[in-house]
Amino acid sequence: MVAQARGASGDRRKWIIGIGAVVVVAALVIGGVLWTISDRNKTKGQIINPGETTSAPASGVTQKRDGVVVTVGKTGAKASIDVYADFLCPICGEFEKQYKSEIEQAVNDGKLQVRYHMVPLLNQRSSPPGYSLDSANAALAAADAGKFLQFHDALFANQPEEGKRGYDKTQLIELGKNVGITDPAFAQTVNAGTYDQQVDAAFQQIENDPKLAQDFGSGQRGFGTPTVTANGSVVSWQDPDWLKKVLG
């Protein structure tokens, strides 16, 4: 009888331990799922802070939209570059961190004009998809209001992670207010996706332009972001002296 009781007691302990292990595993799985969802959606409700990285350009520097290209610089600048970038592209973010101040100085000194091309290359790589196009459209609307650089710099300074949630239109509109846009047309343009079709059409041309194709190794060749060109040729921006060479 004693042996049987001990056996039953041992079985109960094993059963309780087994149930406890299942509960712990379930808690870890649920916690992991909740953390993943939270991490993926961490931009939700976030205010995009312009911060100190979005100083106004120097006197005489204009920001002009022509179709879906925004030209920034002073009249008479001897050098010019074209920058093709996606607001979600992490390498584009690194490019901005490395060269923003040098480009800004050259523009403010009247030595350089920059033509910005917003490309929705990673439009399917946000969750939900669409941030690349929404941000491109909003940046063009900011250019109409004369605040392109401030808007552009703030988006890169607060760049969402590829594969996760971007910023929604309400947040983009709020950023516009925070950089000083007061024209109600800005919010209307963002909400309506006014420039979406033009951005998509331009992107198709850019993707198929052989002059913009680059080698990615292993026989792969095509368009990628960021791409920088000067005088119609792709510039190797990985060279730390590339801008000095462009400026001559």
Plain-language structure description:
Helices cover 48% and strands 15% of the residues. The protein is α+β, with helices and mostly antiparallel strands. It folds into two domains: 1-40; 51-247, 3-Layer(aba) Sandwich (Glutaredoxin). The strands form two sheets. It has a six-stranded mixed sheet. Helix 3 (131-144) runs parallel beside helix 5 (169-178). The chain is globular. The model has no long low-confidence stretch (mean pLDDT 89). Belongs to the thioredoxin family. DsbA subfamily. GO terms for molecular function: oxidoreductase activity. This is Thioredoxin-like fold domain-containing protein. Keywords: Disulfide bond, Membrane, Oxidoreductase, Redox-active center, Signal, Transmembrane, Transmembrane helix. The chain crosses the membrane at residues 15-37.
First-residue to last-residue Cα separation: 98 Å
Structural class, judged by helices and strands? Answer: alpha+beta
* Number of separate structural domains: 2
- Helix share, percent: 40-55%
Order of helices and strands: HEEEHEHHHHHEEEEH
Spans of at least 5 consecutive residues whose pLDDT stays below 50 are none
Main sheet: which strands, in order across? Answer: 1-2-4-3-7-8
CATH superfamily descriptor of the largest domain: Glutaredoxin
CATH topology descriptor of the largest domain: Glutaredoxin
The rounded Rg comes to 25 Å
The largest sheet is:
6 strands, mixed
Q: How many individual helices?
A: 8
Protein name: Thioredoxin-like fold domain-containing protein
Pfam families: Thioredoxin_4
InterPro entries: Thioredoxin-like_fold (IPR012336), Thioredoxin-like_sf (IPR036249)
Transmembrane segments: 15-37
